[in-house]
C-alpha cells in the first residue's frame, strides 16, 4: 500500500509526467490531491498496471480526488526548450489548473523547476511510494495514451495506438517509409544513425 501523504492532513499534490522518451506527441503531466484518509490498494506506478486497470482507476481517482488536473507541453515547445524543461512546463501547467491550491508538492523524479511559490520535494521513484504521485502517473498516462490513439487514426503508419509514440520497430519503420509527421519531435533523433 502506498503512503497517502508525506505529512498527515496537509493538502499535498502529487505530480508526475509521461512521454519524455517518446519520439512524437506532447509530454503530459497530471497533478492530484487525494483526501488524507484515502486508500486504494490498486493505485500504483502506472507502468505496473494493465491498460484496463489504469482506465478503471482513472475514474476512481477523478471521483475521489479533492482536485486533479492535466497539463501538457506541445511538440513545438519540446523542440524549443528541450524535453526536460518541457516536462517542468507540463507539470507547472497541471499544478496551475488544480481547482484547489496545494500546500505542498510531491514531485516524481530528482529535479523540478517551479514557477509557483509552493514548497515541494522531489522523490525518486515517487510513483511507487506515494498514492498521489501514482494517481498522477495514472491520469497522465491514460490521457496521453488516448490522445496518441486518436492521432493514430489520422497517422496510421506509426503504430501509435500501440506504442503511443515510443521508439518501437514499427514506429521507426513508419518514419523511414513515410517521413516524420507534424507530431514528431524534430529535436529528437527519430532514426538510428
Account of the protein in words:
The chain has 193 residues and is α/β, with parallel strands linked by helices. The protein has helices spanning 51-64, 75-81, 83-97, 131-154, 160-163, 169-178; strands spanning 12-18, 27-33, 67-73, 104-108, 120-123. It has one domain: Ribonuclease H-like superfamily/Ribonuclease H (Nucleotidyltransferase, domain 5). The protein is built from six helices and five strands; from the N terminus they run ββαβααββααα. Strands 3-2-1-4-5 form a five-stranded mixed sheet. β1 and β2 form a beta hairpin. The protein is globular. The model has no long low-confidence stretch (mean pLDDT 95). Its cofactor is Mn(2+); Mg(2+). A divalent metal cation binds at residues 16-17, 108. Residues 10-193 form the RNase H type-2 domain.
Amino acid at each position: 500500500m502506498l503512503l497517502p501523504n508525506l505529512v498527515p492532513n496537509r493538502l499535498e499534490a502529487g505530480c508526475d509526467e509521461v512521454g519524455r522518451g517518446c519520439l512524437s506527441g506532447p509530454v503530459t503531466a497530471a497533478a492530484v490531491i487525494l483526501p488524507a484518509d484515502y486508500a486504494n490498494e490498486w493505485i500504483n506506478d502506472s507502468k505496473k498496471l494493465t491498460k484496463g486497470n489504469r482506465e478503471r482507476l482513472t475514474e476512481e481517482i477523478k471521483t475521489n480526488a479533492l482536485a486533479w488536473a492535466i497539463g501538457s507541453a506541445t511538440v513545438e515547445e519540446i523542440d524549443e526548450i528541450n524535453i526536460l524543461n518541457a516536462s517542468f512546463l507540463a507539470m507547472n501547467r497541471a499544478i496551475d489548473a488544480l481547482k484547489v491550491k496545494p500546500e505542498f508538492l510531491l514531485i516524481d523524479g530528482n529535479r523540478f523547476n517551479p514557477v509557483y511559490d509552493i514548497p515541494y520535494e522531489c522523490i525518486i521513484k515517487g510513483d511507487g511510494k506515494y498514492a498521489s504521485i501514482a494517481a498522477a502517473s495514472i491520469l497522465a498516462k491514460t490521457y496521453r495514451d488516448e490522445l496518441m490513439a486518436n492521432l493514430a487514426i489520422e497517422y496510421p503508419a506509426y503504430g501509435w495506438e500501440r506504442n503511443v509514440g515510443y521508439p518501437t520497430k514499427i514506429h521507426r519503420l513508419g518514419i523511414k517509409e513515410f517521413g516524420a509527421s507534424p507530431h514528431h519531435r524534430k529535436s529528437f533523433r527519430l532514426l538510428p544513425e
